């Protein structure tokens, strides 16, 4: 048995899961008028309602016991203290330090992390001011008009998601474009609209070795070099965000134009570092600071709230409950706000790259399901795509509904229409509708008995489908900071509860290595027999067709 399933709380939860499977949420609400009060938490700017999750007070107590028995509190404190809890890479995990106000020293290997963070923030602030004010000039003396951010995974998703979420706050100082795909079509489409003389590239890569990013950066460099042979053009049009100064220098980027990252910031938790530079360039440094402030508020909540009212702790406990005990293999993320449309993609990386693991800290195989498949899209569009499956499919998919009281722009009646759907969907998923109600409804409409008999079973909704509702007061930078902070700490807690190391990503390395070998094979015309017959034939078909 692996370390978690031997715990008393784990075993108690296994017994409870069998009982809860026979309970219906509708009855739980009917029998307890206090259910919402009991299973909701409100903090500054956020209402978190988990009363539509399939749990009882006993289950909640057992889940809290699980948090205690897995030493979650101690692990949290180790993370904030800079202990090397990324055990497989022997690194600290300190994205929380990136949003810690100045003057709160934290020493790591003899260096004050807080000072380093604020030096880098000051450098970002000064650079952003120069570019946005038009003082930073391109090779022919014109100001920058377009920023192209080149990066992938954690070096792309956070900034792009936040840019989309907050674009209604942008002025017309700069345009921003994101390029992440190694498919050259993407960068060619972006560059086709731009003038090299007024374009600034931000190449973001912690390692500065990621093949997709390097391929795109080289294409961008060739595009600039084609437009000008002016001395020093690269220094005027390329900046980098990286922890690998040797590689940025090899690329030809001036060391003054490199913004630092540290090995204690994981890629998927890095939008608060200089990886967020595109956000600050596009929206201004003050908005970036608001984002940091929102996340810092959540750090304080996570550190100080008792677990019973601690939102990220509860989010993680619910995920483990749904997945490891109630058998839900998927989790939907459903933002009811168009600006938040990239949230599902962002959380896919954050959660699945962190906790999509199957061995414990000690390297033993787990004997439980770790994290679910994360998927989703804007709720309203999802309603007309996959909600049929959520309501009547054979698989139960817990869903997070995320909406706002006030959208980022005044859209009049639209917001009521939108949010009425949010509330109605969570209600429908919870309540369902049974044969009796359907029959009564059809009879009241004068439908014949024969037709009712044909239809009734098709119209039944079982309900009892769990949802969590997260209502933000307003979509702004602080709120986005809070929301992402909540999910980040949820993922941390989930890792501890499941005993998996959340901060490495060995699972993406194997494919990367094979791809670089195959890339070399694709560069010549020789047919290959080095691989299995499927891979050989796919490669050879591709090469013959291209010959
Ligand atoms: O910033 P880098 O080093 O280019 O890495 C990009 C991404 O690639 C990964 O290593 C694997 O997908 C991510 O963890 C990371 O965010």
TrEMBL record:
GO terms for biological process: gluconeogenesis; glucose 6-phosphate metabolic process; glycolytic process. One of its GO terms (molecular function) is glucose-6-phosphate isomerase activity. It catalyses: alpha-D-glucose 6-phosphate = beta-D-fructose 6-phosphate. It is an enzyme of class 5 (isomerase). Its main location: cytoplasm. The active site is at residues 353, 384, 512. InterPro entries: G6P_Isomerase, G6P_Isomerase_C, Phosphoglucose_isomerase_CS, SIS_dom_sf, SIS_PGI_1, SIS_PGI_2. Pathway: Carbohydrate biosynthesis; gluconeogenesis; Carbohydrate degradation; glycolysis; D-glyceraldehyde 3-phosphate and glycerone phosphate from D-glucose: step 2/4. It is found in: Cytoplasm. Belongs to the GPI family. This is Glucose-6-phosphate isomerase. It comes from Pseudoalteromonas ulvae.
